[in-house]
From TrEMBL:
PANTHER family: CONDITIONED MEDIUM FACTOR RECEPTOR 1 (PTHR42685:SF22), GERANYLGERANYL DIPHOSPHATE REDUCTASE (PTHR42685). InterPro entries: FAD-bd, FAD/NAD-bd_sf, Geranylgeranyl_reductase. Residues 12-344 form the FAD-binding domain. This is FAD-dependent oxidoreductase. One of its GO terms (molecular function) is FAD binding. Pfam families: FAD_binding_3. It comes from Nocardia wallacei. Transmembrane segments: none annotated.
Amino acid sequence: MDDVAAAAAERADVVVVGARCAGAATATTLARAGRTVIALDSARFPSDTLSTHLLWPSGVAELRRLGALAAVTDLGAPRLTRAYAGGAGHHIATGFPAVDGIDYAMCVRRIGLDDALVRTAAAAGAEIRERCRVTDIVWDGERCVGVRYTDPSGAAAEIRARLVVGADGRRSTVARLVGAAHPFAAERSGRDCLFAYWRDDATGWRRVAAQWRSGADLGTAFPCDDGLLLCLVQPPADPEQRPGAAEKRYAAAIERIPELAARLAGCERVGRVRSATGLSSYFRRSSGPGWALPGDAGHFKDPVTAQGIRDALHYGRLLGEAVAPVLDDTARLDRALSAWERRRVRECRDIYHWTNRLARGEAMRPLEIELYRAATRDPALSELVTGIFSRTRRPGELNAPARSARLVASALWRGRHDPVPVVADVARQVRDNAAEWFTTHTTLSSGPLQGLSHHAASLPFRSPSASPGEDHA
């Protein structure tokens, strides 16, 4: 380490790279604990980012824990009190399970949401520096001890810190610089994501978060702030990714989902179609001596289950809570970082598998159709499915032996004249369960997270790494 440079560098307890969801949550928590926090972001807020943005009740509860809910509510997004799902001729409508007294979802555009979070972090005592771009990590041997960056004028500067938090999204500069850019587990999505905003004319749907399946297509309609509606479609992935095709693909997908098209009747589209293609869900190594990667920088799930913002807020907050008391002791800090990372992997791996199944870009299969059919007449089952999305229930609860047996028996009875598709689906479920169990107990166990230095720039992974982008829900 250069002693002269170290003497000239600015100092803080923590430097956070990226001030959006994960970064703001981490910075807010640490600043409230009395720590000196500097957050650097390349944007100038208010600033939009490529992202869907549904918050299930668990995500709304995180906003309240951070003290940001009032500011976000003031943006005017309606409380979404009902969840609706349609597929294969079946329609399911439920309320939301309460999380810490929050029993509604919200869909808030990122330009307002992120600005509210940045203001919350600043009010807590974090220093937010906009239009600053990190260029390098400062090392002391194997330990990360700060960052180098350029300020808005283009001048080079340096901050030394006990902890560097890379909350800079899927293209994370910090992940690349610490050698963690390649996932140790990844799954290619079978869907592309295309979305646009509409001026919402359907007042009867303004408190409903709706999703429809038709063939291999999936579409959603989420009312949001400023009287708008976020309409997202996820058709099967286009391997060619033809330039300029987003508009046509978006319109065609809506036409293939008649109930979504009916929902949009009378609504006027506002702005262009935005797209995210070539998506992969992944886990990256997310902690090391003096550094951590919350949010999409360390872990990403396909937007099909709308988990990204909640997890960014939740694990950003938990990171701040875990390290605030131990920042002055490097050994205890490193243990806290490792424990935080293991916790996130442990708590997210079930929803990671669940998301990957829904992201396959396939038509509904016999057992899935049977699940929809059963949920239409069983409120407890429909509430269980809604609870999985809101993280109050676990995906494994759907696979309880008695329930699985009933679904299989019912599907076989309905398909008794041609049972082959049902039998094939059952066999596939068994294979999927076995593969997920193996991944959970090998790749996603704590083992691969240990004993790696920042020089390990290439980690084993199952499929190609994630495509560019940041902070998807």
